[in-house]
Amino acid sequence: MARPIGPAQAVAFVRRHGIVLQAARGPVPSLADAIAGERICGSWWGHPKGRAIFVAARAVCDSPDVLVCKLLDGKITYVHRRLWPALVKMASRFDRAGLAKIWDEHTASGAHRARRLAFPRWVPREVLADARRLSLSDAQGMLASCLPMAPPGRQSTRPTSVFVKSSPLKRRGSPDTRASA
After folding, report:
1. I need a labelling partner for 77 at 20 to 30 A (CA). Which of 69, 98, 122, 158 fits?
2. 178 within some domain
3. Maximal C-alpha separation, the chain
4. pTM (2 decimals)?
5. What does the alpha-carbon distance between residue 14 and residue 80 come to, in Å, rounded to a whole number?
6. Domain residues for 34?
7. Is 17 helix (H, G, I), strand (E, B) or coil?
8. Which of 156, 147, 142 is CA-nearest to residue 26?
C-alpha cells in the first residue's frame, strides 16, 4: 500500500517533480491524483481523500519555495524554486498571465479574494541573476515536460523581456504592420 502523502510530503513531491498540477490532467503529475492514489474523475472535493488533498495543497501553497500560478492551460500549477531560473529564462515561451503568482486572501468578513502578482514582479533578484547565467539549452532541458512549442516563424531562443527592454517596433506580420492590398 502506498504511503500517505501529508503536507511535508506534498512539498517534497513538488520539489522532486519540479512542476506539478494541483488537480488537472496534463504533461506533469497531479498532486491530487498522487494523494488519492488513483486518477480522480470529477472534482477532488468529492473524493474520499478530499480533505487530505486540501490540507496538502494548502501546505504547498504556503511554502516559500513554491510558485503557485496558472502556467499550464490556465490550471493551478506548482513550480518549485529550483526551476524558477529556467522559468524566467524561457518566459517568452509561456503565456504572460500564466506566469503571475496567485494566492487566496481571507478578508476580515471571512470571504476569499483571489490575488495575483504579475510576472516578473514576484521574481527574487537572485533568481533573475541565476536566470541570466543559465544557458537556453539548460533551461529548455529543465522545462522540457511543459515547454510549449515556439509559434511558427518565431525563434524559440529569443530572450525574455525580463532581461531586454522591449522594442517599440511591431512584430512582422502583426495587424498594424501588414501591407495593405
Report:
1. 158
2. no
3. 68
4. 0.80
5. 6
6. 7-142
7. helix
8. 147
Instruction: Tell me which residue has cell 498522487.
Output: 34
d(CA 35, CA 52) in angstroms, rounded, equals 7
10 Å Cβ neighbour count for 22? 19
Strands (E) across 30-164 are located at 66-72, 75-80, 101-106, 112-117
* Domain assignment present for 154: no
pLDDT tens digit sequence for 113-163:
999 999 999 999 999 999 999 999 999 999 998 988 754 335 444 444 454
The dihedral formed by the CA atoms of 101, 71, 66 and 13, expressed in degrees to the nearest 10: 160
Which of 62, 59, 43 is CA-nearest to residue 8? 59
Helix, strand, coil proportions of the chain in percent (round to 5)?
Answer: 35, 15, 50
Q: At what angle do helices 7-17 and 50-62 cross, to 10 degrees?
A: 60
Judge contact between 51 and 58, C-beta under 8 A: no
101-114: string of b/e by CB count within 10 Å (b at 16+)? bbeeeeeeeeeeee
Number of compact structural domains in the chain: 1
Q: Which amino acid is at 41?
A: C
